Amino acid sequence: MSYGFQNLLSSYTKAINRKFERTDSLFTQNTKTKALAPVPGGYICLKYIHQSPLKVGLVKDMYDWEFSSYRDYAGIGHGSLCNQALAN
Q1: Is there a single domain that holds both residue 52 and residue 86?
Q2: Dihedral sign of CA atoms 70, 82, 16, 8 in order
């Protein structure tokens, strides 16, 4: 799983760097993966992702993180950040 996640981050970084003519790293070198146990409905991963900016102190409310699909799932967003049908 770590190798797959490393490839994902590397590919994403290369694409962003190419698009914006950058050469910098986008992620810290100690980025870690976390295995999440499956639950009925499969929403634990989305909850973990949506709560991350709040837990690390980037925002005071999950609604405030502009790069999150949380508002879409709460029914107050524009529905443009993710494919909710695919995530479900």
Answers
A1: yes
A2: positive
